Amino acid sequence: MINLELPKKLRASANQAHQVASQIFRPISRKYDLGEHEYPVELDTMAAMVDGLSDSGTQKISGASGGRSDDEAPTTDVLLNANGGNMSALLNALETSWGDVGLMLSIPYQGLGNAAIAAVATDEQLERFGKVWASMAITEPSFGSDSAAVTTTAVLDGDEWVLNGEKIFVTAGQRSTHIVVWASVDRKLGRAAIKSFVVPRDAPGLSVARLEHKLGIKASDTAVLLLQDCRIPKDNILGSPEVNVEKGFAGVMQTFDNTRPMVAAMAIGVTRAALEELRAILTDAGIEISYDTPVNNQHAAAAEFLRMEADYESAYLLALRAAWMADNKKPNSLEASMSKAKAGRTGTDVTLKSVELAGAVGYSQRLLLEKWGRDSKILDIFEGTQQIQQLIVARRVLGKTSAELK
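Now predict its structure.
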């Protein structure tokens, strides 16, 4: 029999994250939704807490660990069952996003670039960049979902890399202390030459061109970054600087195996928030939601709620599986994309349907439902759109390459 109950140590961590979401994020959620680009000063407390937890070793809250774990995993394949940094980070992301996903994306040391560093960095680099707040810069004006179309360049000049290019839609691009930038070391070699570079905020040649005004996650700053002869140390390239044409794009793409389940968790957190709010509204309206009565014999709103709750549960389990595989060093590219696709689609469906079923109060700003409807859309877009995830899943299932199935 499969036991899907969370281990005690993970329940404690998730409960603490939920308290942060409930006591800190929810009360200020509307304030920073209306005050776009205003820095949430309440997060300074979070920075101190995260730093303290990291120093004490009691909790991994600063992003996925790339399958690295301080705990020794069992030595036999049969008994291998580690719950490490990826699972802990996923649950923390879920709970804090239940409070406010924009604020969650603004937590110091919780940037998507932290997961990228953990996925690709050497042990020495992981030690050096272990306590930075890293955003991730991939998208450019010339492309969106096709990550292989990077035009930003990195040229080695003595002991420094010189980066040139423009990056758009960089989450926490102004507030983070470091940015993980995707750039090509030799554009003639195609996607195999794309590498990740850690660029400090104060690196010469790095500047913020503007902040974007957005549909949702307004508490999070989204920046356009310019790299103009930007110089960084030679050893700030993540992983090996060698270009392996046979391995191709696989090196930097490992980043997504970590971050996609994290984004799925964000969508799941927002979905759960909407379902809880909707249940309360339906109950107050005298609509009973029964798990014993066939849906065709229930109120239409109750039947719709049960359908959405089932989708929520499946998205949750897919995300847990993807994170568990990462912690246990199992290839999880297929599962990461499956979890991201399911959770992203479910998030937009549930939040918007909840706005609809709640009627006038759902569309107003009296509740956070309309905000969650706006916030959820980005979770189906960034880290790879719904269509890209389904394409990746199809390639994995059918055994096709990117050239064979486009």
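Residues 250-398 form a domain with the Butyryl-CoA Dehydrogenase, subunit A; domain 3 fold (CATH 1.20.140.10).
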